[in-house]
């Protein structure tokens, strides 16, 4: 398309933009504009070869509807970690509900890379009582690096939805620009660094992360989501690391299928490519190598009254180039629902860990917890 | 620059959708169907009586942004939650505001069966039972059991008790407490009997 045509379309659109945005008066604030919601967990776990332990967390979600069009939300996190109390800000986002089909968001938000981390991670929503192995954040398997590179980040996002006709059928899109990753910890013995995102990580290379997710809800019980992200990353905490050629690319496929109301089938798989600098000590030269990673899970939950058995298969391959850097998980769980948002969940994970020079290290776990949403 | 121009132009076009499109009305039936279809994408549908009408108004803004719902879907679910929310007392269809079962009483208290069935049908439509159940000609509800065949699995007494107390045999049931009178429960049962597949 010629540049002049693009300019003209932008100008035409801009002429119409002020009408809905400016001509309307600010609607009055609803009578009840502030709500505290959220979720929590309390439980016990036993990991093979490790002392047993208890855990508890509370995640209040603060919802504030300022006007009919402006909505703000934040999720706090309180939990036990390493013998102390850990606090965190999962997200703090302001949304502008422009019209029925468009929402513009800014702040720290859960990055829509896949579905699990943005929609399914709360303990009362996740049917299995631990996180899939790729997720890691709180509940990750000891000694296993999470695969998911990003949960929340700071930036701006545009979300659109196009109804496809019929109840619950739609095509959705979320596109975002965020600060992107920087290195929080880089043990030079490991090729892939740990990435940090969010409020205190900033953008140390002036290279934003861009990404998006397309969701296709073909029927009320069938949704397919495709996601991709692309960013650059750099070393260095204090000084900007400009012009870096180290990159992070990710692709994600997620699907949900409910053949009947009582049966929920979910799956999500991701492929990551991380560009890392490889030093050749003999020639004192360096080159960028691509480290491929892969992982995901498939899960089935069957609701029978208040009871719900769950099965999960999980896989994490930290470095596809190395055969012995993967974890396979087989999990079986049983939930008892006390209300639609309160459940006692028990599960056993059979974790086969091949991270230590090919040795098959069992890392099996039993977990039981009480999950509640409010 | 070209990409930026395209993106900003697209956003401007989407934002410029006329306000008139937003003013479409939603129905209780549509609301119930969207509630059943969209909430269960991620979690168990919550009972309308868990929150006040005003709180649902705020919460649905959260669900719109989290679940990529359209404005119309959001309004439809909100309408259903508020209309069936007996705890709030502000719902249009809440509590005893409508008593077609009682109104169908004829002179001397005798209620013809056909009137009772008609009252039951009216109640089923008012309470949007078809949002979650297959019932009569409505085939889209999947959250709850099929009410066209329920009497092949359960007896009439069970149906009456379930209508009176939805959580009586399942504490996690998402069926709203409708606060139906005994006459209204009998009317709904009469309708279910009339459509039952033996």
Predict the CATH topology of chain A.
Porin
- Write the CATH architecture name of the largest domain in chain B: Orthogonal Bundle
Number of domains of chain B: 2
- Count of DSSP strands of chain A: 19
Count of strand segments of chain B: 0
% residues in beta strands of chain A:
over 45%
CATH architecture of chain A: Beta Barrel
Q: Please write the CATH class name of the largest domain in chain B.
A: Mainly Alpha
What key phrases describe this protein's structure?
heterodimer; A: 374 residues; mainly beta; 3 helices; 6% helix; B: 198 residues; mainly alpha; Cytochrome Bc1 Complex, Chain D, domain 2; 9 helices; 49% helix
Overview of this protein structure:
The complex is a heterodimer of chains A (374) and B (198). Chain A is mainly beta. Chain A has one domain: Porin (Beta Barrel). Helices cover 6% and strands 57% of the residues of chain A. Chain A contains 3 helices and 19 strands. Chain A has helices at 3-16, 18-22, 116-120; strands at 34-47, 53-65, 70-81, 84-99, 102-110, 152-163, 170-178, 182-185, 194-196, 209-219, 222-232, 247-257, 263-280, 285-302, 307-317, 326-339, 342-356, 359-362, 365-373. A 16-stranded antiparallel beta barrel of chain A has the order 1-2-3-4-5-6-7-10-11-12-13-14-15-16-17-19. A two-stranded antiparallel ribbon of chain A has the order 8-9. The longest helix of chain A is centred in the first third of the chain and has 14 residues, at 3-16. The model of chain A is unreliable at 14-27 (pLDDT under 50). Chain B is mainly alpha-helical and 198 residues long. Chain B has 2 domains: 19-88, no CATH class; 114-196, Cytochrome c-like domain (Cytochrome Bc1 Complex, Chain D, domain 2), CATH 1.10.760. In chain B, helix 2 (28-38) packs across helix 4, helix 3 (53-67) runs antiparallel to helix 4 and helix 8 crosses helix 9. The longest helix of chain B has 15 residues, at 53-67. Residues 18-23 and 90-112 of chain B have low confidence and may be disordered. Classes of the chains: A mainly beta (374), B mainly alpha (198). Chains A and B meet through helix 1, helix 2, strand 1, strand 2 and strand 4 of A and helix 1, helix 2, helix 3 and helix 4 of B.
């Amino acid at each position: 398309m010629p540049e002049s045509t693009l300019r003209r379309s932008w100008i035409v659109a801009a002429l119409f933009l002020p009408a809905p945005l400016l001509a309307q008066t600010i609607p009055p604030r609803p009578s009840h504009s502030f709500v505290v919601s959220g979720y929590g967990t309390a439980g016990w776990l036993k990991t093979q070869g490790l002392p047993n332990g208890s855990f508890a967390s509370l995640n209040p979600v603060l919802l504030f509807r300022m006007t009919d069009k402006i909505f703000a939300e934040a999720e706090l996190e309180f939990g036990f970690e390493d013998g102390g109390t850990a606090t965190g800000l999962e997200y703090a986002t302001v949304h502008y509900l422009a019209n029925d089909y468009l929402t513009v968001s800014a702040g720290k938000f859960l990055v829509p890379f896949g579905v699990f981390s943005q929609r399914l991670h709360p303990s009362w929503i996740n049917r299995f009582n631990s996180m899939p192995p790729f997720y890691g954040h709180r509940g990750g398997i000891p000694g296993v690096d999470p695969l998911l590179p990003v949960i929340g980040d700071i930036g701006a996002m545009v979300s659109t939805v196009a109804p496809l006709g019929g109840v619950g059928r739609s095509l959705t899109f979320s596109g975002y620009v965020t600060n992107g990753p920087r290195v929080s910890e880089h043990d030079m013995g490991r090729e892939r660094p740990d990435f940090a995102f969010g409020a205190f990580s900033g953008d140390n290379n002036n290279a934003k992360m861009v990404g998006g997710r397309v969701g296709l809800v073909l029927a009320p019980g069938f949704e397919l989501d495709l996601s991709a992200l692309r960013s650059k990353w750099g070393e260095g905490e204090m000084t900007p690391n400009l012009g870096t050629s180290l990159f992070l690319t990710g692709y994600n496929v997620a699907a949900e299928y409910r053949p009947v109301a009582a049966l929920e089938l979910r799956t999500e798989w991701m492929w990551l490519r991380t560009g890392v600098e490889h030093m050749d000590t003999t020639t004192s030269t360096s080159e960028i190598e691509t480290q491929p990673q892969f992982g995901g899970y498939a899960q089935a939950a069957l609701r029978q009254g208040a009871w719900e058995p769950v099965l999960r298969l999980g896989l994490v391959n930290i470095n596809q180039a190395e055969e012995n850097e993967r974890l396979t998980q087989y999990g079986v769980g049983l939930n008892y629902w006390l209300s639609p948002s309160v459940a006692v969940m028990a599960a056993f994970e059979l974790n086969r860990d091949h991270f230590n020079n090919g040795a098959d290290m069992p890392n099996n776990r039993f977990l039981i917890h009480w999950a509640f949403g409010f | 620059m070209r990409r930026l121009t395209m993106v900003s132009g697209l956003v401007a076009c989407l934002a410029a959708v006329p306000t008139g499109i937003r003013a479409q009305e939603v129905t209780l039936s549509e609301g119930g169907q969207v509630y059943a279809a969209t909430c269960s994408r991620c979690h168990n549908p919550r009972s309308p009586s868990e929150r006040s009408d005003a709180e649902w108004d705020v919460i649905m803004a959260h669900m719109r942004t989290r679940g990529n719902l359209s404005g119309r879907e959001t309004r439809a679910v909100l309408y259903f939650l508020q209309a069936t929310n007996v705890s709030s007392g502000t719902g249009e269809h809440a509590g005893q505001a409508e008593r077609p079962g009682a109104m169908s009483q004829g002179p001397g208290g005798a209620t013809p069966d056909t009137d009772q069935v008609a009252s039951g049908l009216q109640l089923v439509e008012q309470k949007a039972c078809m949002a979650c159940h297959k019932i009569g000609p409505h085939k889209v509800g999947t959250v709850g059991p099929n009410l066209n065949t329920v009497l092949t699995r359960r007896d009439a007494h069970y149906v009456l008790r379930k209508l009176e107390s939805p959580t009586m045999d399942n504490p996690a049931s998402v069926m709203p407490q409708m606060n139906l009178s005994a006459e209204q429960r009998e009317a709904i049962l009469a309708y279910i009997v009339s459509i039952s597949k033996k």
